[in-house]
Specification:
Blueprint: E1 5-10, H1 16-23, E2 34-36, E3 42-44, E4 71-76, H2 88-104, E5 109-112, H3 113-116, H4 131-137, E6 142-144
Parallel strand pairs: 1-4, 1-5, 2-4, 5-6
Antiparallel strand pairs: 2-3
Helix pairs in contact: 2-4
Length: 145
């Protein structure tokens, strides 16, 4: 399957060790390709060419379901409460990663988790992330926020 979408998430956890623990616990049945920490640390959980379980029940605006099948999931360490910020180092590394992904894959969409999760309103992440900054990193892709 051709990867053409990047889904951005917030971890809803405060520490990278917590995220790694959840992704390493099979009972949670959740994963992402990458997590970017507050200082810009990048953890690869799943290789890009493999499916990660990050989008859950989901649908793209073009009608395609099962977004995990054709997307890369990037988690940002953030409590997703509207108070926890996205530091400059984290945003800079996100932009760099997005730029590289868009260079390697034919990315047509960069979407927030909230934009694709079903039923609508089930997810809110990534609360507080500036979509304009995200759009600059992958200018050829359609941003759906």
């Amino acid at each position: 399957v051709e990867i053409d979408t990047v889904v951005l998430h917030a971890t809803e956890r405060g520490a990278l060790w917590q995220v790694k623990k959840v992704f390493a616990t099979p009972e949670y049945a959740v994963s992402a390709h990458l997590t970017i920490g507050k200082r810009g640390e990048i953890i690869c959980h799943v290789p890009f060419e493999k499916r990660a379980w990050h989008a859950g029940v989901s649908r793209m605006p073009d009608g395609r379901n099962d977004v995990n099948d054709f997307s890369i999931g990037i988690e940002l360490l953030n409590r997703n409460n509207g108070i926890d910020s996205y530091p400059d180092a984290q945003k800079a590394h996100l932009r760099a990663v997005l730029h590289e992904i868009c260079e390697v894959f034919d990315i047509k969409f960069v979407v927030s988790h909230r934009a694709i999760a079903l039923p609508q309103g089930r997810k809110s992440d990534p609360v507080g992330l500036d979509s304009v900054e995200v759009a600059q990193a992958c200018s050829e892709a359609l941003l759906i926020w």
